[in-house]
Amino acid sequence: MKFGGTSMAGIERIRSVAARVKREVEAGNQVAVVVSAMAGETDRLVGFCREASALYDPREYDVVVSAGEQVTSGLLAIALQAIGVPARSWLGWQLPIHTDEAFAKARIGTIDTAALDASLSAGEVAVIPGFQGVAEGGRITTLGRGGSDTSAVAVAAAMGAERCDIYTDVDGVYTTDPRIVPRARKLHQVTYEEMLELASVGAKVLQTRSVGLAMKEGVRVQVLSSFTGPDAPMADTLPGTMIVGEEEIEAVERQVITGIAHDKNEAKITLTRVPDKPGAVAAIFAPLADANINVDMIIQNIAHQAGQAGPGSTDVTFTVPGADLARSIDALNGAQGEIGFAELVHDTRVAKISVVGVGMRSHAGVASQMFTTLGQRGINIQAISTSEIKVSVLIHEDETELAVRVLHTAYGLDAEAA
Ligand code: ADP
Ligand code: ASP
Ligand code: MG
């Protein structure tokens, strides 16, 4: 069982989480619980680091920001003991959960489960703070924002758990963020692949890495609500959304488009008058790769024909994570000589809207419908990218909600009016 930040926000909620864990124990299950920090706490701790120094040491950042989960794991163990459920907390370094040394975005390697197994066999509930691990040499690491989902899936995989139930503040995965589109529909099932795409293009209900790990390790994952009373159906009746293999999807659930996601955290960069010659694009992306910056969407326009004025040139537009914009500009300006662009223009007021569905493999016209729908609403498309099961477009940030709503309707995803 994994409980997110809103589910752990305050003692009252922690008590209700404890009661829910107790129900599972009384039903005869052995339970390991992974917890997030209280909602808002990790942001507060990140803020302290930034305030202390803009150029903080990521190793010390991890010591600070992992603290929120230490608090909630101890509190949940106390709340469980108080209602007669034997429980203890296991910090990342105590199990341990081994990670690499990529501080602030570490990857889990192996998890020692001997102590956990012994504790569960002795009838205890194990409470594990999410988001944290330990690198070789003993320093604390964190897994990147939203990383408790990944902790939970990794623990489930290591222990060979029957299922990993991710409890959150919505009762499942929806066709789009239900906080933006009230007519979003809850999905009973979604494939690993689609969930992976949806998460990676902005559906923050699960951290992308947690889905990738679940897919690789074959962990059964359910997303469900922690905000239900004591008579809520048991998790075993699968009241939430199950993440499943494509072969398991029931035919009635099949739609061409499964979900729509948005992401306002990208920034757009355009380099003008890049020489139109072999190697030119490589010269742009090599310095970004060296700076460990992920480029997402890319478009290249033949803007200026070769002629008497000299060789032809093109404008190249691409997106990078908003958080990496300053470093990207720095890297590109540093390489201006080699790239040979005239001007660098950037814009953070953009949003990426993505439609995802395995049905796209066998249906033509998905992209065309997207472009037509947006065009009819006067929404301008600035860049496009696609994969086998996804089409993404970049638009002005102010049009995000409108775009998601009209696409949701156009692909027939709206729930029946209540
Ligand atoms: P937790 O603190 O439990 O980890 P998160 O805030 O990380 O919770 O994730 C849950 C939120 O994800 C929901 O409140 C919802 O607004 C958002 N969300 C975005 N896209 C979707 C979607 N397709 N289905 C459900 N929730 C979504
Ligand atoms: N508390 C961490 C965060 O806010 C990890 C998590 O909640 O998943 O990113
Ligand atoms: Mg989360």
What report would you give on this structure?
- The protein is of the alpha/beta class.
- It folds into 2 domains: 2-247, Acetylglutamate kinase-like (Carbamate kinase), CATH 3.40.1160; 260-410, VC0802-like, CATH 3.30.2130.10.
- Helix content is 33%, strand content 24%.
- The protein has helices at 11-26, 41-52, 58-65, 67-82, 114-121, 148-159, 192-200, 208-217, 280-290, 325-334, 336-339, 366-376, 400-410, and strands spanning 2-3, 32-35, 87-89, 97-99, 108-111, 125-129, 132-135, 140-142, 164-168, 189-191, 221-225, 241-244, 259-263, 266-275, 298-304, 313-321, 344-347, 350-356, 383-387, 390-396.
- Strands 3-6-2-1-9-11-12-10 form an 8-stranded mixed β-sheet, sandwiched between helices. The chain has a 4-stranded mixed β-sheet with strand order 5-4-7-8.
- β19 and β20 form a beta hairpin.
- The mean pLDDT is 95.
- Magnesium ion is lined by residues 4, 146, 149.
